[in-house]
Amino acid sequence: MIRLNDGKTFLWQWDVDQYLEVDTGAAQVHFKLNAQNAISVEVVDGRARIPDELLQKAGSLLCYTYDGDATVSSFQFGVKPRPKPPGYAYTETDRKSWEALEGRITLLEEAAQRKPAFSINEAGHLLYTIDE
Description:
This protein is an alpha+beta fold. It has one helix spanning about 90-115; strands at about 1-5, 10, 20, 30, 40, 45-50, 60-65, 70-80, 115-120, 125-130.
């Protein structure tokens, strides 16, 4: 049997850190993306983490448990729509923006250790330094 964690009957769009409870003895859960593709997730201690990316659209999700040789069972659940919460940073664009910001911060920290004054442009390049 497969079920959503905590007895839920559906999930909300933009949810994160959600799990399936899997008691079929399966080693993997395959989340169907389309007719040709699926995302495979390992089952650990009877639980499989639902990829956050799959909860970015409202609708229905279908998944299958796999024991290494064959499909054991299937499960379908709904994702109800809701507005994107402020601060949600799991979309690809959000992640790239965050990674770029982290890169600039790292460059600033490194430059601060070498020189007393500096400037870094949006591309993350050191523009100038002023020696005392």
